[in-house]
Design goal:
Two copies of one chain form a homodimer.
Chain A: H1 11-25, H2 32-38, H3 43-46, H4 53-66, H5 70-74, H6 80-97, H7 101-106, H8 113-128, H9 133-161, H10 182-187, H11 199-213
The structure holds a DNA duplex (19 and 19 nucleotides).
Chain lengths: 214, 214
DNA sequence: ACCTGAACACCGTTCAAGT
DNA sequence: ACCTGAACACCGTTCAAGT
C-alpha cells in the first residue's frame, strides 16, 4: 500500500471493487474516489489503470458480458431456439444481478470484445438455421434489442419497488391513479418480474416465431 | 427574478430548461445548479418545485412520452400493425432526439401517467385484434421492451460515434480488432441508424408476425 | 514506473434567514 | 409562500512532487 514503483493492484481488482460498490450502494455510488478507497489507494492512482471513469465503466460492462457462455450458444447439440433462450436469460440475469447495471450498459457504447462476440454468435446461429446473412444480422439486432429492452423494464420496475415512499407530495400530479389504466392494472401480475409463464420467455418466443418463419 | 412570494417560473419551465441542457451538453450536464442558473434562480429554489433531482428527471421522461399521439394509435381507421409502427417509431425518435435521453428513461421507473397510457393503448390494441387479455398484456410488454431496447442500441451507437478518440491507449486490450468479428463487421451497415430497410422496422414486423399469429 | 497530496471546478441537498 | 446564501459532504480530473 505504500508508494512504490510496483503495481499494487490490477485492472481486474479495480473492476471487481467497482462491482462490489455497484451491488451494495447502486450506480450513483460508483465513484473513482470510492473505488480507490476500497482498494486502499488514492483516487489519482486509478488514473494509472484507466484513463477516465468512463473507461472503468466500460470495462465493467465487458466484465458483465464476459460471463456469458458463448461457446454453449454456438454448440449445435441443442436446438437453436433453446440456446437463444439460455443466452438471453443469462444476459438478462447478469444485468438484473447488480443494482444499476442497466444504466451502466446504457451509458456507453457496446463495442467491447465480448459485446461483439455476443453479436457474432447470434448472427452465426441464425445463419446456421438457413437465414441469409443480411436477415441473420437483423435478427441478431432484434434479439439484442429485445433482451436489452426487457432488462430496461426490469430495472425500471425495481427502482419503482425501492421507492414507494414520500414522493407523492409535489410530484403527485404527475403520477397515475390506477382507475384510469384498468388493463395495465389488471394484467400487471402477468408481466411482473417473477411471473409464470415468464412474459420475457413468451415474448422472445413470439419474436423467434416471427424471425424463423421469415 | 427578485425574491418574492410569487412563483416566478413553473414546473414546465424547469423541465424545458433541463431538456435544453440535455440536448446541448448531454445527460451528465443536467444538474440542479445548471438548470437553476439557466432560469436565473438559485439551486435551492428548484426544491420548491421538485423534491429531488430524481423527481425532475422523471418529469422529463413524462414530458418525453406526453408527445406520443396515443389517440391516433387507438383510432381503428388504420390497420393495427401500422399504428404500432407509428407509435414505436415516434417513441424511438423521441428518445433519439435528445442526447442522453436513454439514460434518463433507464434511470427511473416508468410509472408516470403517459407511460401507463402507452401500455394501456397497446393492450387495448392487441385485444381488438382478437387476443385474450393475458396475451395482449404480454404482447404489449414485448413491444415496449423491443422499442426500448432499440433505443438503447441507438444510444450506444451514438456514444460510440462521438468518441473515436484518444481512448485506445490503456484500455486498448479491452476493445476489439475487426478481424475477429467478421459477421458483425460485414453486416454493420445493415443495422446502422439510417439503414434501408430499417432493421428496427424489420425486427418489429417479425415480432408482430409472431405475436399476431399466436 | 507508480503513487501521493493539493488543488480546481464542480455536484445534490439541508437549513436558517430574508421579503 | 417563495426565494437567497452559506454550508456540508461529496464529485472527476489535473499536476507537481515524492520514492
Amino acid at each position: 500500500m505504500k508508494p512504490g514503483p510496483r503495481r499494487s493492484v490490477s485492472q481486474v481488482d479495480i473492476v471487481d471493487a467497482a462491482f462490489e460498490i455497484l451491488e451494495q450502494k447502486g450506480f450513483a455510488a460508483v465513484s473513482v474516489r470510492g473505488v480507490a478507497a476500497a482498494l486502499g489507494l488514492t483516487p489519482t492512482a486509478i488514473y494509472t489503470y484507466f484513463p477516465s471513469k468512463n473507461a472503468l465503466l466500460r470495462a465493467m460492462v465487458e466484465e458483465l458480458l464476459s460471463s456469458l457462455d458463448l461457446a454453449a450458444a454456438g454448440d449445435t447439440g441443442a436446438p437453436w431456439r433453446e440456446r437463444v433462450h439460455a443466452l438471453a436469460a443469462a444476459l438478462r440475469a447478469r444485468i438484473a444481478e447488480h443494482t444499476g447495471a442497466m444504466v451502466l450498459v446504457t451509458s456507453g457504447p457496446l463495442d467491447g470484445r465480448h459485446a461483439l462476440g455476443l453479436n457474432e454468435t447470434l448472427i452465426a446461429g441464425f445463419m446456421a438455421e438457413g437465414m441469409p446473412q443480411a436477415d441473420a444480422a437483423r435478427a441478431a439486432y432484434a434479439v439484442r434489442a429485445h433482451v436489452l429492452g426487457v432488462a430496461a423494464l426490469d430495472a425500471a420496475e425495481r427502482v419503482d419497488d425501492a421507492e414507494t415512499a414520500a414522493e407523492t407530495s409535489t410530484a403527485g400530479a404527475l403520477w397515475s391513479d390506477a382507475a384510469s389504466h384498468p388493463l395495465t392494472e389488471a394484467t400487471a401480475h402477468l408481466v411482473a418480474d417473477g411471473a409464470e409463464p415468464s412474459a420475457f420467455a413468451w415474448g422472445l418466443d413470439r419474436l423467434l416465431d416471427g424471425l424463423l418463419a421469415a
